[in-house]
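Memo to structure team: turn this sequence into C-alpha cells by end of day. - J.P.
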Amino acid sequence: MPTKHQILGVALAGGLSSRMGQEKSELEIHPGVTQLEYLLSILNKMCSRTAVSVRKGQALTSSELSAKVIEDDEGDKGPMAGVLASLRAAEGLPVLVVACDMPFLDAPVILQLLSRREANKRASCFTGEDGLPEPLCAVYESSALPLLENRLREGRLSLRNFLLDEEVEFIELAKPRLLASVNTPEEADEARQRLRIDLQ
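Reply from structure team:
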C-alpha cells in the first residue's frame, strides 16, 4: 500500500445544487455509491487526513461519514468559503480540495496532482479543456490562507482568479475531460452512460 501524503484531503460538498435539484454529494453516478462516498474512498487511500466541507447548517445523509465535517463560517461565499474553512482546519497542512460534482476523477488523476505538487508555490492545479486553471481539483498550500483571507475581505471571491494571479503550479492533464462537472439531472445521466461505456 503506498505511503499516504501528509495532506488534508477535502471533498467539497457545500454547493447549493440548485440546477440539480438535490445534493450533488448524494448523487449515485458510480454504481452503488454516492459521489461523496466515491471521492472519500479515493482520498482516504492517499491523504493522511480527510474531511468533508459543507455549508452552514447542511446535513449529510451519506453513510460514509468517517471523515471530519468542516462547516463554512463565511456565509454565502461559494467555494472560497469551503477552501478557507479547510485551510484553517488543516492546522498548517496543505489542503487537497475536490468538488463532489466531478464524477470522472479517479485515483490516478488525484495521484498525478499530488505527485506533481510544488510545495513552494501557493497552489498546484490542473488546467481544463479551456486552458484555465481548475480551482476545485487543486492543492492549496498553507501559505495561501492569508492571501485568500485578504481576497475575501476585499470581496474578490473567484478562486480561479486567485490561481491566475499568484505563483501556482499548472499541470496539464492528458484527458482534461476528466475534470468535467455535472450540474443538471441530464448531465448526471450522461455521466452514468459514459462511465458504463468506459467500464465495458
